Each structure stands twice: as structure tokens, then as C-alpha cells.
């Protein structure tokens, strides 16, 4: 059983036009930078991307948008991206906006083998249109389905040869959820260590959910809103 | 005189109680963190996966892996914990967060809120707002009483697409503190020097102003 | 905000006759030994206990059974307990048996604010009697409701003053799930440290779910099936 | 000659493939771990919260916090990970576990299984068995062909309360290896020296035995 790949190009080799892929990260925090670069290089098109955000014009998923590789975005927040806005208004790009907690929980549901979940988010709003609602204990909930994605691409801090992953700080965000949800899960990590080098008590994503792993290179880790304390 | 944004935040901070877990939205709500009363412990939740959010970092100490829901660089406080986005919204959905403060474009007198979309203009998305308003036990809206055109944002019905229904409990604006009751907006306090008549004039939704309405107090 | 209690007696003081309590642990592994002893001492009766197992005759929940303090057990497996069997056959004790994964997921659902979940466990068996079923993608599922328990009593390895918890090895089991599910959650820990002493990346249960915490004493940690390698 | 329990485990171990994640039940299934073929990596899942279960500890190295689903003291292997019971059954439910091996009191020729309750006698509970059989992609039952009274455990219909329906894929007994097919039990292999007639005589459910049925091979 070898899960270790040489690099992003190898790990994403079989992602083809029209694929449905999940991409971890919140804003530019914890995004799979190496795989995004490899997808741009490969030029794969007509992608459906499930990702909380769509990057910025020149970084993250924004790089895929620039190359018009994305057919549809499924996200909770897509602000601050001029090319995105242009493609959306011109009709080149489809967008499905869903509440952030719903996005997260639909990933989790896939990872837990639960076909659907109930959430109150969006009840009474346009998000509820066409969806089944149900009352429990006097409160109304929407039924939302588990995601069904061919590939999940996540970024972790540390990973081992068996695919166990540990995330750092708020770079965790959607990564462990998407890691659980992909039929094939590709993890890029800042540090790849041998099996046994990570504390088994501290694993965030057990290796059973991870099919391919590689140590990424040249992480830029761009900061979207650099904010410092007033002295 | 109408409150500054800082004073709106300061007034909302008076609602905090010892032991509260609080989620603060972007904009005026973020400023509430600067006015947590002395002697009480409040833990800030950031829905991207952190309990125990601290102030912005010192210059040079920014950490790209440590941001808040507004994508700003932040710090942690002792006792903080990181978790994934599903658990983050799980604790929100389970009612473990005691107070949510967020901005709004419109609030109606039955507690509906609209703050995520203006049809025909760019749609950025609801982010976590719909989850928060659908689940929070106690939601305070921090906003200006009127929009830049001078039109009331406290309405009989929201005109913009809703974020959530029957969820807002209290509104704090530069003019007033109002509870949402089954009868409509109930005026609780006026900004210092602001008259009930001015508040009435700028509130399009149903407004109840009974008895003597006190002025807000600041320390 | 003080969550620290002096001991188990103080922490369980307001648990009264007829309470519904969850108790963490799998077999005798990771059970809240101090709180069980305190419940026996307090003599509180007519308890409904949600716990994967019912202990053994002279340890764990078995101690509560001996004193006839339990009205009802909700568990997945209750073997190896003679007093339990006697009370069950005599009709003194009610037992609701549910699949282990369903038990775990109903706890999780409570902690995640999800009123119900779907699981295929028990479809076509007596567990499904009276339950709503639903087909998703050609497979049948049961709808199971989130638990609603007044108290959850869990055991962790380390905890801090803010209630953050870390578990050790397979003593984790149901503990983090029940910790999330209680209206009031009481955690006993082997080591209680000041806020800030635990790595925030490594917390298993964030303190928001924990209302009371104390450092337990005299852990016996009895082994149910001591099994060693043949030399 | 009929297989020993160890040989049943040994035969099941031939079904393992490199990279498999496997959940082994209590009894004969546990023994499968002793016969993992050389040169392949198999990761054992214990549903109480462990991936990467190792052998029993050496005398004196038992750790009360480290047990398997049978409550036995165990060890871990490099690359192991602990998790809670919900995630454990989550990965089972999501089909991430490649193979489940468990014991049974009865199996029917349409793949139903009964292994948790004998009405009128003590009911110990189903533990994780119902979750496992409802979700596992591939279930092999390891059991004796007949009960202590000599009655067949491979039946047209289970007489005991079911654990799960239409879920068993393969049965390995001391006499035979059988697949469950839409037509019933299909005899694949015989224990060395055991005749097809003996297997037929001891199989109450529908049995298909076409062509030459080979003997099991052991290394």
C-alpha cells in the first residue's frame, strides 16, 4: 500500500475535464496551493469546484477562474474577485451559494455515510426554495443532502505515509471535512513524515480517508487581510 | 446626539455576561471586543474554527494560518481551541453560543433580517450568516438606523432577500436600543440627546414607545 | 466564569432522582469512575443511563445497578453482568438496546444541533420497529433522533480551566460525543491544568461544551479482558 | 477433514488484499490477524476508536486505556490513529472499511444474518454488529457449519432475530467456502477431504454446487 506521490502533478494526474472536486481552505487560509497550481498547469476544464470561497483574482481558485477552467462554483462566499464577477455576470460561470455551516455539514455527512442532514440554516429564505422542510420540536429544518464528489483536495500541516493528517490553527477549517468526503482524497502537506512519527492521539484525519499524499513545495500562504494591533 | 460606531459597540458590550460565548460579525460587531466589561470572562468564537479569539497580532507577528471569519490576522488567548468548520457550526446550531452580534441591511418588526444579498448587484454570498441567525439563542443587530439615502432600515417587512426569519432579538443603532417583541420594535433606550420623535420618524416598522424612555448610559 | 469544581460530589450535587444522564466509556475503558462513586454515595435513584455498556458487577455502572439506582439503561451491549441480568429478568430494570454506531451518532447529533440522523443500522431488524424509514440512492435508512439528556458525565485524560479536554487512546470512545450532548456536561480528568497549558491544535472537546470540570482521584482503570501476547 | 478454527481464519486471510482496511469481529474473526499474507499491508480497524491495531501486548505492558472492541488489551502499530465512536462508525457507514469479518449464529441463503439475540435467553445486545453489517461493502462470515446440536446454520431463512438483511457476501466454515448469490449459497471450495455430499447434507438453505468443486489450498 503506497499512498505517497512525488508531487502535485502526479497526484492530480487523473482529474479530467468535467470533474467534481472539493478544495479545502477558508479564504486563502489552508488552501491546497500546490494542487491548484498543478490543475492550472494541466489545463483541465469544466470543473465543478466545491469550496467555501473562490480565492482572489491572482491566487487560490482565482487562478483556475482566470484560465476559465471552472464551470460551476459551490460556495458560501465569493466576494473580492473581479474576474469571478465578470464571468458570473456574463453567464460563463454558474454559482450555487449555500450557507457555510450547510456546506461544512454536507461534507461531514458524506464522510460519515449519512445521506442527508437537517439544518435550520436558510429556512424561510431563497435557499429553502425547492427543498424539503420538516419540523422537529417546533422548529423548522431543511433537509440537505451529503455531497458526492469524485475528488477532494486538501492541505494539511503534517501528514504521514499512511495518510494520517494534522492541521494547523484555523487552516484546519474545511480540510478535514472534505478529506472525509472525497471518493479519492488527495492531501498535500507541509511536512511528510514516516508512519509512526505522529502521535496517534493527535490525528485530525485518520489515514483511511486519504488516498494520496505528497509533501508540497514553496508555500506562499498569502494573507488576505493583514491586520495588526494599534500600538 | 447620535452614537458613533464605537459607541454602538460599547452599548452592545453592556449586554455581555460572565461566561458568555460570543460570535461577533464583521464591521461594528467586531468593535464590541474592545469594550468587554472588566471583571467578566467572555470567550469569542470565530466560525472558521476558533474559540478564544484574541486581539490582532503585533506588527510582524502575523500568522497566515491564524485568521478570523473576516480573513483578518488574529491571535489566540490562553484556553483557546481550534476545530473544523462542521464542529464550529455544530456548536452554533446546538445553541452553545450565547450571543451573536451581526450587522444588517434591513430588520423587520417581526425579527426578520436581510444582510446578504442585493438583487441586481454583486452577490457575495451568505457565508455563515444564515447558519448563525437560524441557530443563535440571542441575536443582536448592530447597524445604522437609516441607509445612506436616509431611508429607515427598521421596516414593517424586509424588502431584500431574507437571511433568516423571526430571529433578531434586539437592535442597537446610533439612535436607539430596541427589543423585537410580538407587537413590534419596543424602544428601550435613546442615544443621549436623541428624542423619541426622531426615532419614531426614522423607524418605518411598528414602534412601541411607552412611558419614559431613558437615555443610554456609558461609563 | 469558573468551571472548576472541587470534586465529584460537588460536580454532581444537583443530579436528582429520575435524571437522564449520559456516561462516557467503552466497557470499563474511559469511564468516569469518580462521578459514578459519587452518584452511588449520593444515592440518587430512578436514573436513566445512556451508556454503551453497563459495567461489570462490581465496577462502573454495575455499582449503580447493585444499589438499584437505575431505572433504565440505553446501551448497545450489556453482557457480563449477573446483577444486571437478574434485574432485567425480574422486570426491575428497563433496557433499550440500540446499535453502537446509532448510539454514538445520536450523541453527536445532539452536540451538532441536528434533530435527527439517518443510518442503515438496524434496517429490517426489530430495531426498526416503529421507526420511520427512508430510501436514499436505493438504500434504506432509519431516522434516529438526537438524544436529549440533562447531564453528560465524561472522563478525559487532560483538561484545562476553560473545560477543554484531551482523551487518551481508546479511552476516547463515547466521551467527546457525550460531552457535546449534555445540557450540563461534567468532566472528570486525570490532570487539570491552567487555561493555556494545552495545545489549542490538539483539543478534542472545546470548552464551550463543558460546564464543570474537576481533577479525579484514585483511578483504578480496571482491565476487563487482560490479554497478552504468547511468548 | 474439517478445518480447525485457526484454519478457517487462515482461509479468510487469503481474501485480504494490499491496502485493505479490515474490521475483525470477536472469536474466529480475531484470529484472521495472525494470517495476514506476507508482502501486503492491511490496517485493522477496531470500532471502539482505532485504526492500526497491533498484537496483544507483552506481559506487563497492558494499558487500560488501549483496548479493542472485545475489551481485550492491545497495542498499536506505526501509523495508527485514535478517534471517537461516531467517526469510527462514520468511516464504516461511509464504506471506507474494505472488509468486515464476523461470526454468526445463522446465515440465510439470501444473505441475512442473525448473531445478536436468542429470545428467552439473556440478551447481551448488538454492540456494533448492526452498524457493521448494514454498511460494510464486503462481509465475510466465519462460523461453524452446524450448531452444537448438529443443525445447519446455513438456512433458507434465519429463525433468530436478524442483525441485518441481504448483507453477507461470503461464508467460510470448517467445511466450505460459499458465496451468497441471488440463487442462494454457491459452493466455491471444500475443506480438504470433505465431500460435496457432506456439505449438501449440512446446508439447509439452497445450495448450488456446480462442476468440480476444488479443495481449499493452504500454504
- CATH homology superfamily of chain A: Glutaconate Coenzyme A-transferase
Give the radius of gyration of chain B: 17 Å
Radius of gyration of chain A: 18 Å
Tell me, briefly, the overall form of chain A.
Answer: globular
Account of the protein in words:
The complex is a heterotetramer, with 2 copies of chain A (231 residues) and 2 copies of chain B (219 residues). Chain A has 231 residues and is an alpha/beta fold. Chain A has helices at residues 8-11, 33-42, 62-66, 82-90, 100-111, 175-181, and strands at residues 20-23, 47-50, 70-75, 94-97, 116-119, 133-136, 139-145, 149-160, 165-166, 182-193, 212-215. The model of chain A has no long low-confidence stretch (mean pLDDT 96). The longest helix of chain A is centred in the middle third of the chain and has 12 residues, at 100-111. In chain A, strand 8 and strand 9 form a beta hairpin. In chain A, helix 5 packs across helix 6 (175-181). Chain A has a single domain, classed as Glutaconate Coenzyme A-transferase. In chain A, strands 1, 2, 3, 4, 8, 9, 10 and 11 form an 8-stranded mixed sheet that branches. Chain A has a 3-stranded antiparallel sheet with strand order 5-7-6, with helices on one face. Chain A is built from 6 helices and 11 strands. Chain B has helices at 5-13, 28-31, 85-93, 129-135, 196-202; strands at residues 21-24, 43-46, 50-54, 75-82, 99-102, 106-108, 113-114, 139-142, 154-155, 170-172, 176-181, 184-190, 207-208. Chain B starts with a helix and ends in an 11-residue tail after the last strand. The radius of gyration of chain B is 17 Å and the shape is globular. Chain B is built from 5 helices and 13 strands. Chain B has 219 residues and is α/β, with parallel strands linked by helices. The longest helix of chain B has 9 residues, at 5-13. The chains are: A alpha/beta (231), B alpha/beta (219). The interface between C and D is large, with 56 and 53 residues.
Amino acid at each position: 500500500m503506497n499512498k505517497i506521490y512525488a508531487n502535485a502533478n502526479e497526484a492530480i494526474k487523473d482529474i479530467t475535464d468535467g470533474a467534481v472536486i472539493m478544495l479545502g481552505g477558508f479564504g486563502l487560509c489552508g488552501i491546497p496551493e500546490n494542487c491548484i497550481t498543478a490543475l492550472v498547469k494541466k489545463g483541465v476544464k469544466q470543473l465543478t469546484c466545491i469550496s467555501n470561497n473562490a480565492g482572489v483574482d491572482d491566487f487560490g481558485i482565482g487562478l483556475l477562474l482566470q484560465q476559465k477552467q471552472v464551470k460551476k462554483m459551490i460556495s458560501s462566499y465569493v466576494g473580492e474577485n473581479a474576474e469571478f464577477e465578470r464571468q458570473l455576470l456574463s453567464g460563463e460561470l454558474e454559482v450555487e451559494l449555500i450557507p457555510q455551516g450547510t456546506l461544512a455539514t454536507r461534507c461531514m455527512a458524506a464522510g460519515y455515510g449519512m445521506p442527508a442532514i437537517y439544518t435550520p440554516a436558510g429556512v424561510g429564505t431563497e435557499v429553502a426554495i425547492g427543498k424539503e422542510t420538516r419540523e422537529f420540536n417546533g422548529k423548522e429544518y431543511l433537509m440537505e443532502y451529503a455531497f458526492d464528489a469524485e475528488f477532494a483536495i486538501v492541505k494539511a500541516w503534517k501528514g504521514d505515509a499512511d495518510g494520517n493528517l494534522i492541521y494547523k490553527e484555523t487552516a484546519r477549517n474545511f480540510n478535514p471535512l472534505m478529506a472525509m468526503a472525497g471518493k479519492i482524497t488527495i492531501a498535500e502537506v507541509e511536512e511528510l513524515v514516516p508512519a509512526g512519527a505522529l502521535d496517534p492521539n493527535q490525528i485530525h484525519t485518520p489515514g483511511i480517508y486519504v488516498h494520496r499524499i505528497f509533501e508540497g513545495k514553496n508555500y506562499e500562504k498569502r494573507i488576505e487581510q493583514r491586520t495588526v494591533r494599534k500600538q | 446626539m447620535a452614537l458613533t460606531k464605537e459607541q454602538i459597540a460599547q452599548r452592545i458590550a453592556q449586554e455581555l455576561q460572565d461566561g458568555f460565548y460570543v460570535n461577533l460579525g464583521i464591521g461594528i460587531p467586531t468593535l464590541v471586543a474592545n469594550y468587554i466589561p472588566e471583571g467578566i470572562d467572555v470567550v469569542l468564537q470565530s466560525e472558521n474554527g476558533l474559540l478564544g479569539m484574541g486581539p490582532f497580532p503585533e506588527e510582524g507577528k502575523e500568522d497566515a494560518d491564524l485568521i478570523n471569519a473576516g480573513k483578518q490576522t488574529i491571535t489566540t488567548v490562553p484556553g483557546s481551541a481550534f476545530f473544523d468548520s462542521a464542529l464550529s457550526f455544530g456548536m452554533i446550531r446546538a445553541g452553545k453560543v450565547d450571543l451573536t452580534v451581526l450587522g444588517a441591511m434591513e430588520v423587520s418588526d417581526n425579527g426578520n433580517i436581510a444582510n446578504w444579498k442585493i438583487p441586481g448587484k454583486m452577490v457575495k454570498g451568505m457565508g455563515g450568516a444564515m447558519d448563525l441567525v437560524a441557530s443563535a439563542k440571542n441575536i443582536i443587530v448592530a447597524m445604522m438606523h437609516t441607509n445612506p439615502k436616509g431611508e429607515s432600515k427598521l421596516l414593517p417587512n424586509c424588502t431584500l432577500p431574507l437571511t433568516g426569519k423571526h430571529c433578531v432579538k434586539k437592535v442597537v443603532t446610533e439612535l436607539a436600543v430596541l427589543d423585537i417583541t410580538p407587537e413590534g420594535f419596543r424602544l428601550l433606550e435613546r442615544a443621549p440627546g436623541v428624542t423619541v420623535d426622531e426615532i419614531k420618524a426614522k423607524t418605518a416598522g411598528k414602534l412601541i414607545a411607552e412611558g419614559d424612555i431613558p437615555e443610554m448610559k456609558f461609563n
